[in-house]
Specification:
Helix content is 34%, strand content 15%. By secondary structure, the chain is α/β, with parallel strands linked by helices. The strands form 5 sheets. A 5-stranded antiparallel beta sheet has the order 13-12-16-15-14. It has a 4-stranded parallel beta sheet with strand order 6-5-8-9, with helices on both faces. Helix 6 packs across helix 8 and helix 14 crosses helix 15. The chain is elongated and about 105 Å long. The chain starts with a strand and ends with a helix.
């Protein structure tokens, strides 16, 4: 099952997910229920932004709670690798309550993923002394790895060939007990796919999944705080904040003299990737890169439905994590051993190489939505693409539909409405609250012997205005037969008020011959 999927019944084609997806990995296709936003898995980097911004909650994340519960109920020995951002990602009043709750849930071992962070950081420090390709990008964030493999495969040599802290910790645990099942719990959606690709982590739960499992915290209401199973982490607890990896690895991050930088936030990551791909990065040896602004403490799958009352913004989350590190740091760092070969991994080019449509194909699509000249291309971005041309390319590739162009659809709707209005055999006059004529159809122009020049003038030039004023004041429908002697007409007229637009519509049918 896909990590992120769409509930079609909830999707309303608002294009918000496409507008905010940093790599535009969203597809819209025609045909019944399929005219909904679908995630293009081959290009998705699983940053989770589409899940967070969907106003209809139509984007969902695969839930693995049932699988984990089945292991626990079946008597399996299951260990938890808990991401260090749990102190701000789970709204428990005391971090120790989370550990106690996991023990109560049936997990045999509860340790910190920060142990794996320390193992990975130690190897990262060793690599930094003999890098063949510079700069080297830290590989802890799976979203960054996805971004490189799927959208910048030419930069794969720059990725540090190390597993993430999650995988390092899982291998550390299974080195001690190969029969152990390991469940990672954290704020990251992309970790689910990372676990699918590598066999070391058996399941991934998000903080939100765990909090839902615990019924919004009721499950831990009667437990006493507990401590993690040894060994205990130290500097690895800083990994969730930008600069944490550099600090843990002991790599110089000096602002002026250092050759290492910390980057967080997808926009900043993309900007760096573009600059690096153009060969314009100089003097940098190590790059710590995290997709979420501020780091993993701002992950997309924290228990957002029940936020900590004393944590309002990113700065406060950072301060809380630092306070936990200072108060919980052991006096002596743990002695961690893991075979070096277990800390390494390979990458693959997963880039989707779609052919670029010809100029004739692009222009043909643009012409279908009335964009014949450069001036016609509004580039408003309402459809989710940065320009009309980008959207036309997506249409050619089968990722978008013509109907996604809102100005085009509005123009089309207006032209259809105008066509219907002028095809009506009855006369139609539309006025506003000031009784100014806003629209008059062909039948009305013929009936009252006027041209469209009356549009913008007072309705009194054609008819007695009291008929419209009566409806405006009473907000009701007025039906009657009226003789308009100045036009030599007797008409059946229906005048009604449209409150949504503060307009009054009059419909007139000529019954002069019938009256005579």
């Amino acid at each position: 099952m896909s990590v992120i999927y769409t509930v079609n019944a909830k999707c309303r084609d608002c294009y918000k997910c496409l507008r905010l997806c940093p790599v535009q990995a969203i597809k819209f296709s025609s045909g019944g229920a399929n005219m909904r936003a679908q995630v293009r898995e081959d290009e998705c980097i699983l940053d989770g932004r589409c899940v967070a911004v969907c106003p209809q909650k139509a984007k969902k994340v695969r839930r693995d709670v049932d699988l984990v519960q089945s292991w626990l109920e079946g008597g399996e020995k299951v260990a938890v690798s808990l991401a260090p951002s749990f102190v701000v990602g789970l709204p428990a009043s005391d971090p120790g309550l989370v550990v106690a709750g996991l023990k109560k849930s049936g997990f045999a071992i509860v340790q910190e993923t920060a142990l794996g962070a320390e193992l990975a950081a130690r190897e990262q420090r060793r690599l930094s002394h003999g890098m063949l390709v510079e700069p080297q990008i830290n590989s802890s964030c799976p979203v960054v790895v996805n971004l490189v493999e799927r959208h910048y495969p030419g930069l794969i040599p720059h990725l540090a060939p190390l597993v993430s802290p999650m995988v390092a910790h899982a291998r550390f645990l299974k080195q001690r007990d190969p029969e152990l099942k390991v469940v990672f719990i954290g704020p990251c959606i992309a970790k689910k796919e990372e676990a699918d690709q590598l066999d070391d982590v058996d399941a991934v739960l998000t903080f939100q999944e765990l909090w839902d499992w615990w019924n919004g915290g009721e499950f831990i209401a009667d437990v006493a705080p507990a401590k993690f199973d040894p060994p205990h982490a130290n500097l690895g607890r800083l990994f969730p904040i930008d600069g944490g990896m550099l600090k843990t690895a002991g790599i110089d991050g000096d602002l002026v003299e250092g050759q290492s930088i910390a980057i967080s936030g997808m926009d900043n990551c993309l900007s760096f990737m573009e600059t690096l791909s153009q060969g314009k990065v100089e003097g940098i040896r190590t790059v710590e890169m995290l997709a979420c602004p501020g780091g993993c403490i701002n992950g997309p799958a924290a228990a957002a439905q029940a936020p900590l009352t004393d944590i309002v913004n990113l700065f406060q989350r950072r301060q809380r994590l630092l306070a936990f590190y200072r108060t919980q740091a052991p006096k002596e760092p743990a002695s961690l051993e893991l075979a070096p070969r277990l800390l390494y991994r390979d990458y693959e080019d997963r880039g989707v190489k779609e052919p670029m449509p010809s100029e004739e194909e692009i222009r043909a699509v643009l012409a279908q939505v009335g964009k014949v000249t450069k001036e016609d291309e509004l580039n408003c971005g309402a459809c989710g693409y940065s320009s009309c041309r980008d959207k036309a390319v997506a249409v050619c590739r089968g990722h978008a539909e013509l109907e996604m162009c809102i100005p085009y659809m509005r123009q089309k709707a207006e032209s259809i409405a105008s066509l219907v209005l002028n095809a009506l055999p009855a006369g139609v006059i539309v006025v506003d609250g000031d009784l100014t004529i806003k629209e008059i159809n062909n039948a009305a122009r013929e009936l009252f012997h006027c041209s469209d020049k009356v549009i913008g003038g007072d309705v009194g030039v054609l008819l007695e205005p009291e008929h419209f004023r009566r409806v405006l004041q009473g907000r009701r429908v007025d039906r009657r037969r009226v003789a308009y002697h100045r036009h030599g007409l007797v008409v059946e007229q229906t005048i009604f008020f449209v409150p949504e637009h503060s307009m009054i519509v009059g419909i007139f049918t000529n019954v002069t011959q019938e009256e005579e």
